[in-house]
Amino acid sequence: MVQMPRSRSTTDSEGELGFGEVFANGLCMKTTEVEAKLDEGNIEEAESSLREGLSLNFEEARALLGRLEYQRGNVEGALRVFDGIDLQAAIQRLHPSLSERLHPRKGRSRTESLNTVSQHAASLVLEAIYLKAKSLQKLGRLTEAAHECKSVLDAVERIFHHGISNVQVDSKLQETVSQAVELLPELWKQAGCYHEAMSAYRRALLSQWNLENDCCARIQKGFAVFLLYSGVEAPPPSLAVQMDGSYVPRNNLEEAVLLLMILMKKFYLGKTKWDPSVMEHLTFALSLCSQTSVLAKQLEEIMPGVFHRVDRWITLALCYSGAGQNSTSLNLLRKALHKQERPDNLMALLLAAKICSEDSSLAAEGVGYAQRAISNTQGADHHLKGVGLRMLGLCLAKQSKASLSDSERVWLESEALKKLNEAVPFESDNFDLIFELGVQYAKHRNFNVALHYANRFIEATAGSISKSWRLLAIILSAQQRFSEAEAVTDAALYETAKWEQGPLLRLQAKLKISESLPMDAIETFRYLLALAQAQRKSFGPRQSVHQVDDDRVNEFEVWYGLATLYSSLSHWRDAEICIGKARELKPYSVESLHAEGVKLEAHGQIQEALAAYFNALLLDPGYVPCKILIGALLLKMGSKSFPVVRSLLSDALKIEPTNRMAWYYLGMVHRNDGRIADATDCFQAASALEESEPIESFSSIL
Fold first, then answer.
1. Block means of pLDDT (10 residues each) for the chain, length 702 residues?
2. What's residue 547's pLDDT?
3. Rounded to the nearest 5°, which phi and psi values hold at 701?
4. Which of 55, 203, 361, 379 is deepest in the core (most CB within 10 A)?
């Protein structure tokens, strides 16, 4: 039996190898004489010494000699020695003995003894081929190295036809096989042969190599990283390895996620050591496919102690925020920002402020988070002050919607605009900030400045983002420049992919209505319906609201828009069909109830119309169109209903201060109540707003 050369002394003072011994077949031999002959270049004499001293055959002696040269760092010398080894002879010698082991007869102890000796000898030769591949790798001959490494695995597969998982093999042979399996894909990658590397990875993971958990985990991680970042599209696994009913990844991303989740499961079960980089790669992969809720589940399954609890809370908050579960995310951030945890964590403060900026009921809380974030942007984090100012501006703007007084609302809107402008010097390259400034100025009816920011955003993004064109068209529509707005939408549609044209087409239909071209608007809506149905067939049913791209066509909105248009044309039969189609998509929606109420009101069914409007408010108490329509109907019922009408319209104006119809009907209430001065103010406001009314709310773009 051949063993690894063992050194029985440390290196001498000059750092050269002193003396060592090598054992084989029960014999022991010092390597000093062999090394001396190698130093002189006498490979044949060194080989002869090993054969005579340890009773080895030619191939075993060559293998041992090559290993000795490799360990001494003489790669070129090792390669010259390895070139003389006949791998096929070793395979032929190993195969019969294994066959006898798998089909034992009498004299079992002797058979097993012979098999053990043969395995040790063959493992030495296979290791030599592996070391030859390593030598070629160090010399930069990568393709040759890969072929040599592959020959080791080919040989093992010929010997063990059904894999080596259930066959007891020599530990050294198993070690060589594991090392070769792990090395082969790396060699192909270094050689630039990426498809061969993918095949090697799959061969490593799908064949029976009896790999240890840690080795298998390294290969799985390496393959996942390669799939994620190589830029080379992997072909699907061959049909030979696909099992009926098994999941087959459709692309690189899916296969990488599958591998990384298998690794995570191994970590949970304690089969492998925790590797934080696996979680980082999985975070990247799941974020790419908008599956942050799956990432959150993976984080929750990690045992306590791996992550600090605050780090886990903040990361989970990011995941849930990306999944649209803002309430859960904010609750986690509140825990992380508790005074006994990390109250000054900048990332948590900014994320909490961002979440609060999307809800008027949370905006005041978000202002506090943003202010704390700004006060903590010191030193290396100073560049984040602009982000804090931007979040503060957005929170103040949202808070103004919940303001109880006009003076407070005006002050909050002014402060919001001020903070957004203060963020510009810090975030001059932040295109989102430029866009938000355009929207805020448009809300303030400062259209010239709003147009400046809209054009600036289009230039900065090269017109690649459809919402920039939408903002420009809506601003132009507010200036009553409908032909220019239509030209903008036409240009945007020309530059936009078909699947992303939904919002632009909806905008174009509204422009047609504003230009008194209802039939053209109907044709646009019909095209939108066709696009929506094509998208549904292409992308399948939508799993959740947050995963729907803003540029995708919302079929429900198309049917509702058609119902509203047909109602305005008094085509009640068509309107009823559209309302029914909308209800099939959303059985309970304020828009459907609103359209139903308009139809009933037009047919003189006032009580039924009021019931529809009130039901809509039960679903959404802040739905302004129904508040206004209820107020308009009650206004006709006499002076006893004036207080209720005034309250409804005042609530509507708190939510939408620029709604001209709310101002108009409030003026009617004041006029009928004898308050002429108040009525005049309301009518003037309604008239001014009518002159600058956009075809869509500016807030709808954010």
1. 41 36 61 64 65 66 79 84 73 57 47 53 81 93 94 85 66 89 96 94 90 94 95 75 67 93 92 92 93 92 88 95 94 96 95 95 96 89 91 95 85 94 92 94 93 94 90 94 94 87 92 93 93 78 44 83 94 94 92 94 94 95 94 91 93 89 95 93 94 89 78
2. 39
3. -85, -30
4. 203
CA separation for the pair 165, 216 (Å, rounded) = 13
Q: What DSSP assignment string belongs to 157-183?
A: HHHSTT-STTS---HHHHHHHHHHHHH
CA gap 686, 681 in Å, rounded: 9
Nearest-angstrom CA–CA distance, 252 and 229: 10
Q: Residue 514 in contact with residue 480, Cβ under 8 Å?
A: no
What is the rounded distance in angstroms from the CA atom of residue 682 to the CA atom of residue 360? Answer: 26
For residues 37 and 24, is the Cβ–Cβ distance under 8 A? no
What DSSP designation does 622 have?
Answer: T
Q: Are 139 and 75 in contact (CB under 8 A)?
A: yes
The region, left, alpha or beta by phi > 0 then psi within -120 to 50, assigned to residue 61 is: alpha
Please tell me the distance from the alpha carbon of residue 37 to that of residue 41, in angstroms, as a whole number: 6
Three-state SS for 585-620 is HCCCCHHHHHHHHHHHHHCCCHHHHHHHHHHHHHHC
Structure tokens at 568: 């305005």
Which amino acid type is present at position 289? C
Helix (H, G, I), strand (E, B) or coil at 693: coil
Residue 124 main-chain phi, psi, to 5 deg: -65, -40
Alpha-carbon distance values, 606 to 588, 600, 602, 613, 661 (Å): 21, 7, 9, 10, 20
What's the N-to-C CA distance of the chain in angstroms?
Answer: 76
- Alpha-carbon gap, residue 658 to 510, rounded angstroms: 19
Q: Look up the pTM and report it.
A: 0.77
DSSP string covering 236-304, please? PPPGGGPPTT-----SHHHHHHHHHHHHHHHHHTTSS---HHHHHHHHHHHHHTT-HHHHHHHHHHSPT
- Given this model, what pLDDT does residue 17 score? 31
- Given CA atoms 303, 304, 305, 310 in this order, what sign does their dihedral have? positive
SS3 content of the chain, % helix, strand, coil (to 5): 70, 0, 25
Q: Is the Cβ–Cβ distance between 640 and 672 less than 8 Å? A: no
Cα 46 to Cα 77: distance, rounded to the nearest angstrom: 12
Q: How far apart are CA 177 and CA 126, in angstroms?
A: 8
Q: Backbone phi, then psi, for 6, in 5-degree steps?
A: -115, 130
Residue with tokens 């309107």, as numbered in its chain: 575
Letter for the amino acid at 620? D
Q: What's the rounded Cα separation, in Å, for the pair 209 and 173?
A: 11
DSSP secondary structure string for all residues of 207-229: S-----HHHHHHHHHHHHHHHHH
Element (H, E) at 63: helix 58-71
CA distance 508 to 309: 50
What is residue 15's predicted lDDT score, i.e. its pLDDT?
26
The CA distances from residue 524 to 242, 515, 518, 573, in Å, are 47, 14, 10, 20
Please state, in angstroms and rounded to a whole number, the distance separating the CA atoms of residues 3 and 64. Answer: 9
345-348: long-range contacts, CB 8 A cutoff, minimum separation 24: 345/310, 345/314, 346/373, 346/376, 346/377, 346/381, 346/384, 347/314, 348/314, 348/317
Give the H/E segment covering residue 22: strand 20-24
Q: DSSP readout, 651-666?
A: HHHHH-TT-HHHHHHH
DSSP state of 551: T
List the beta bridge partners of residue 29.
22
